[in-house]
Design brief:
Length: 192
């Protein structure tokens, strides 16, 4: 039996941690298969993932990891929406990965926003940009905000503020925002 050196043990531990964060479902995701499955999403999230209704988010260009996490949250019931929970319950891991790969591959949407509100929001957005990216593009499990419908963003901030959606950092941040702050920030990100 070979004795492991501390360096070898550390390297093996580091490799195990790295492998636990990589997702085989994501690496084998098939955007074309996701496109074929996306027909159930179009009614709410729009053709090519660009929603025309402010109640539902744009999915186009959204972070793949974020989409998978949200589908998992709906499936587990930790995020509630009867329609999304019913849909997510039918999805396999491969289905979720394929849908996420498809939507994340689509061109980013643009949303109409009030220029004066957007300018005011830009002055307040520094805290958001740290997690959501300098251009609001999102990062991994952190969602893209750029191009999202402003009313949808305000609604989600309200949901975090009032505990409808659970996320420690977002609940804390939203809890300190006024309604005017939320409208300004939402206008800024919609205009990006």
């Amino acid at each position: 039996m070979t004795k492991k050196t501390p360096l070898l043990t550390s390297l093996l531990l580091l490799l195990a941690v790295f492998l636990s964060f990589s997702s085989p479902a994501n690496s084998a995701a098939d955007p074309e298969a996701g496109e074929k499955s996306a027909s159930a999403c179009i009614g709410c999230h729009g053709n090519k993932g660009q929603s025309k209704n402010v109640q539902w988010p744009n999915l186009a260009a959204q972070q793949s990891s974020y989409l998978i996490n949200q589908l998992n949250a709906f499936k587990s019931g930790s995020r509630t929406n009867p329609m999304m929970q019913a849909i997510a319950a039918t999805l396999s891991e491969a289905d979720k990965a394929n849908l996420a790969a498809y939507f994340s591959s689509l061109p980013a949407p643009t949303a109409v926003s009030d220029a004066a509100l957007a300018a005011a929001g830009q002055e307040k957005a520094a805290l958001c940009l740290g997690c959501h990216g300098n251009k609001g593009e999102g990062r991994g499990a952190i969602p893209r905000l750029a191009g999202q419908q402003p009313d949808y963003l305000v609604n989600q901030l309200q949901n975090f503020k009032h505990g409808v959606r659970q996320s420690g950092p977002m609940q804390s941040i939203a809890g300190n925002l006024s309604d005017a702050d939320m409208r300004e920030l939402a206008a800024f990100f919609a205009a990006m």
